[in-house]
Design a protein that fits this description.
With about 350 residues, the chain is of the alpha/beta class. The chain has 2 domains: about 40-135 and about 235-340, Periplasmic binding protein-like II (D-Maltodextrin-Binding Protein, domain 2, 3-Layer(aba) Sandwich), CATH 3.40.190.10; about 135-230, D-Maltodextrin-Binding Protein, domain 2, CATH 3.40.190. Helix content is about 40%, strand content about 15%. It has 11 helices and 14 strands. The protein has helices at about 1-40, 70-80, 95-100, 115-120, 165-175, 190-195, 205-215, 245-265, 280-285, 300-310, 315-320; strands at about 45-50, 60, 65, 85-90, 110, 125, 130-135, 135-140, 155-160, 180-185, 200-205, 225, 235, 240. The strands form 5 sheets. It has a 5-stranded mixed β-sheet with strand order 10-9-11-8-12. Helix 8 (about 245-265) crosses helix 10 (about 300-310). The longest helix has about 40 residues, at about 1-40. About 40% of the residues are buried. The model is unreliable at about 10-30 (pLDDT under 50). This is Amino acid ABC transporter substrate-binding protein. It comes from Azospirillum cavernae. Pfam families: SBP_bac_3. Belongs to the bacterial solute-binding protein 3 family.
Length: about 350
């Protein structure tokens, strides 16, 4: 009698587990599709960018946003909506942008935001890859003849509150036993104005941002020096909300497609007519391999549109912040791995 009663209970338990697993799977699929469906329904990708940094995200007098970070947002729109122009840009300080992303007001954050433990684990965000390897440095007036950190003792240093620059500065100078006068500021322009007015002697942030500040805001850029010394490593890259799994994969692979295209020597000009190729890697990028977009919930031509409408990683870097731009930044660590840099694409297969 005991054995006969046990079998139905086991079957019931097994069915319950299966049902729970099915519900879990359906819930996960719904969660993955949720963000993508929202974007398609509204017809635009909502992208959080900086309040205005030349070369990265700056709104021109014509109302158009331009820059390295901006082009990544356009790449996402090209992949998902078929049109790189279908982006709504929301500008803010680092803290404001992180808050907008955490609450789900924006779909992605694409600005000079360092990927850190506290931002990912503490705020429930996820990194989709490193788009720029940077480091924190300092800019000062050439006339002060500052060449080393110890020469900054007693001087005023401007930084933006709520950024990694604030923590890096405090930690590094404490370790080096250098006393300085901290001058915390809010938005970028507020920090720059304090430097120009003489409220502080030195300004500190990522090297890439300093290059932009010198070109954009200094009346005579040649009168200001950016120190070659870095006090931190600043891996910068797009962030999305944790839980938006399907959307996270799209944002990750869009970045990798741009890097992959440069590795393969494919540019926005050479790819526009979808040239024939025997290379499996090239064919996948061109959308000539059936089903390549299915895991992302996209059509097969998503990567082709990214490159055709926006460009490969090298094109985006060079036009916005590279040697042919006003910022004149060298690739350095952001060169392809085949050329001595740290940049390589995950396999698109």
């Amino acid at each position: 009698m005991g054995k006969q009663g046990t079998a139905p209970r086991r079957i019931g338990a097994f069915l319950a587990v299966c049902w729970a697993g099915l519900l879990l799977a359906l819930g996960a699929a719904t969660a993955q599709a949720g963000r993508l469906d929202d974007i398609r329904q509204r017809g635009a990708v909502r992208c959080a960018v900086s309040t205005g940094v030349a070369g990265f995200s700056l709104r021109g007098s014509d109302g158009r946003w331009r820059g390295f970070d901006v082009d990544y947002c356009r790449a996402l729109a090209a992949a998902v909506l078929g049109d790189a122009e279908k982006v709504s840009f929301i500008s803010g300080t680092t803290d404001e942008a992180l808050g907008l992303l955490t609450e789900g007001t924006v779909d992605v954050l694409s600005r000079s935001a360092t990927v850190t433990l506290s931002r990912l684990a503490g705020r429930g965000l996820e990194s989709v890859g490193i788009s720029l390897f940077d480091g924190q440095s300092f800019m000062t007036k050439r006339g002060l003849r500052i060449r080393t950190l110890h020469q900054m003792a007693g001087l005023g240093v401007c930084f933006q509150s709520g950024t990694t620059a604030e923590d890096n500065l405090a930690e590094h100078f404490a370790m080096q036993k250098i006393n300085f006068r901290p001058v915390p500021k809010g938005p970028l322009r507020e920090m720059i104005d304090a430097y120009l007015s003489g409220e502080c002697d030195i300004i500190t942030t990522d090297s890439s941002a300093l290059a932009a500040i010198r070109v954009m805001y200094m009346p005579r850029p040649e009168d200001h020096v950016i120190l070659r010394q870095h006090i931190s490593k600043e891996p910068l890259g797009p962030l999305v909300r944790k839980g938006d799994d399907g959307w996270r994969e799209i944002t990750r692979w869009a970045l990798n497609a741009m890097i992959e295209a440069e590795e393969l020597g494919l540019s926005s000009k050479s790819i526009i007519d979808r040239p024939s190729s025997d290379s499996p890697r090239v064919r996948r990028l061109l959308g000539l391999v059936p089903g390549i977009g299915r895991p992302l919930g996209l059509d097969d031509e998503w990567a082709w549109r990214v490159i055709a409408q926006v460009g490969n990683y090298g094109e985006v870097f060079e036009s916005n912040i590279g040697l042919s731009s006003p910022l004149r930044m060298e690739r350095g660590l952001n060169e392809l791995w085949t050329r001595g840099g740290l940049l390589f694409a995950l396999p698109l297969r």
